[in-house]
Amino acid sequence: METSGELDRNLLNLNLKNFSSLIPSPSITSIDTLTPKEEYYSDGDEPLLSGTGLVSKDCSEDVLESWADVLGRWKSTKQRPRQLAGLVKLGVPEALRGEVWQRLAGVEEGAEIMERYRVLITKESSCENVIQRDIARTFPAHDFFKEAGGLGQDSLYRVSKAYSVYDSEVGYCQGLSFLAATLLLHMPEEQAFCVLVKLMYDYRLRDLYKDGFDNLYLRLHQLNKLMEEHLDTLWIHFENHHVETHMFASQWFLTLFTARFPLYFVFHIIDVFLLQGVDTLFQVALALLMWCKKDLLQLDFEGILKYFRVSLPKKCRSEEAAKQLIKLACSIKVKKLKKYEADFMALKDGWEIISLDSEAVEHKENEASEVEQLRVTLSRYEEERKMMMDEISQLKDMLKREVNQADTEKKNDTAMINDYKLIRQRLDAQLRTVKAEMEDLTAKITISCEKCSEFLKKDEKDPLKRPADPIKGEERIRELELELAQTKLALVEAECRNQNLTHQLRAAEIELQTTKNSWPPWLSKTLTSIKEVTNKKDFPNFNVSQSGLPNTNPTFISHINAVRRESLPIKKDKITENRRDSAPPVIKDSHSCTSLKTHH
């Protein structure tokens, strides 16, 4: 670890040619005194807003003459003069920054990009909503970008949108707006866009945003190794408190220190970055860590992060502090960046191998799990197959039994049909024989006896003896069935009337009994006496007379006629031929046919 005196000697040995006498070289421990205490504590614990700080355009005549000489030779030779590096490290005058930045970036040859910018701003971008949200948070402390919809925010929106269309691979990432705003403070939109493109492509800033921020991880690894080399005590302190470089340096690298620090310090960093390139990121980061090492060693995890967010930017407010920091940064050697990059790539390859091995192991485990699942599934399917085979076997046996039973029944039915056919044939033969015998017998009787002959002729004329006509038989059956239905209907009606009369009789008996209960005693005795006398008298027999014939008593006859009138229907319809045709079809059953045959 370098002591304060050694750092002082290194600062004095800076290769600044004739410009080393322009700025004194205080020690690192005295830099903290360059920022006044009252200015440091003026904002309390609130972070410093981006865009804070006023940059004066005043410059001494000696510096302007030096720059005029360098710029003249630069324009004539088209090459960077040797004195340019020393002047840039001391800080480019604010009035010349726009021109110097464009020359350092090589924009004087970017006429084609400027023309393309005018086309890009007319195209639509998928990042427009994100850009609109970010520009309101970019340099809110600067008057040029403070007003919503003002010239500054509109210019910043167009430049950011144009780059998102120009670089479709990166598009727009948070942090680009701070860099674009820094450029817009020194040059028009077209030139600012051209310098932004140069910074992203030629200075490889876009690599920080690509491939999942792989290049950013590389830069953070390099910074970590540089801390271990130059600031081992602070590095160990960070390790003990689990503070990692990405927690504070990611924003530094992605925004080129433009998001947190005062403008004078930001402009001076971009001066040197355009001169030297990516190495400036590490030099400035190490200079800041060296400057605040004493404070950081006294803080814990939360305190360290708060210091980077709040305290450190406030300590860079004064121009003198910014100049001393840049001078310190330029003195730091970062020659081992290539070695650290190689180490990182080796580690990355190792991580990839480990990742591949892990993926292979995981793949094997997944395959083993899938195989086990397949085995379980196969076993289940095998059990189901066995169950289905058993069911199929049972169904086959059942089907065989059913087929055998059907064959047996078919054979039995065939045998029965054959037997019936034989019986019918035998009966037909017997019937023919009997008819023939009857005809012979009838013929003999007719010849031998005249009376018998006449009787037989009459018997042949009897319609009942003649063969029945099937059509007339069907009609007769329908007539009989219709009469049967009418008779049943009349019977139902009679039963209904009988039931009504029964109800009326019961009601009358109940009423009579109720009336009897309400009679006076003398009336009951009188009626009882009359009833006894009446029972002793002889009444005529209404059932049968002495001769055994039906009784001809007038009272009996009147009762019988009354019953007949009530039981018979009021009017009986006569069945005609037309009515027979219109009658509903009658179900022909074997019982009706049998009864008809029996009748005949």
Q: Can you put this structure into words, describing what you see?
A:
There is one protein chain. It is elongated and about 180 Å long. The chain is an all-alpha fold and 600 residues long. Mean pLDDT is 80; it is low at 1-27, 538-552 and 566-600. α12 (214-230) crosses α14, α15 (263-276) runs parallel beside α19 (319-331) and α16 packs across α19. It folds into four domains: 33-48 and 204-334, Cyclin A, domain 1 (Orthogonal Bundle), CATH 1.10.472; 96-202, Helicase, Ruva Protein, domain 3, CATH 1.10.8; 344-461; 467-516 and 555-600, no CATH class. Helix content is 70%, strand content 0%. It contains 26 helices and no strands. The relative contact order is 0.06.
Write the SSE topology.
Blueprint: H1 4-12, H2 37-40, H3 61-77, H4 84-90, H5 97-105, H6 111-120, H7 128-135, H8 143-146, H9 151-166, H10 176-184, H11 189-201, H12 214-230, H13 232-240, H14 246-255, H15 263-276, H16 279-291, H17 293-296, H18 301-314, H19 319-331, H20 337-448, H21 450-461, H22 470-518, H23 521-536, H24 554-567, H25 577-582, H26 590-599
What share of the residues lie within helices?
A: 55-70%
Please state the overall shape, judged from the principal axes of the Cα atoms. elongated
At CATH level 3, the topology of the largest domain is Cyclin A, domain 1
Parts with pLDDT < 50 across at least 5 consecutive residues: 1-27, 538-552, 566-600
Rg on CA atoms, Å: 65 Å
From the coordinates shown, what is the CATH architecture of the largest domain? Orthogonal Bundle
| Largest sheet descriptor | none
Distance between the termini: 145 Å
Run of helices and strands: HHHHHHHHHHHHHHHHHHHHHHHHHH
Percent of residues in beta strands: under 5%
**How many helical elements?**
26
Classification by helices and strands: mainly alpha
Overall average pLDDT: 80
Number of strands: 0
GO molecular function, one term: GTPase activator activity
Region (Disordered): 574-600
Domain Rab-GAP TBC: 91-277
Keywords: Coiled coil, GTPase activation
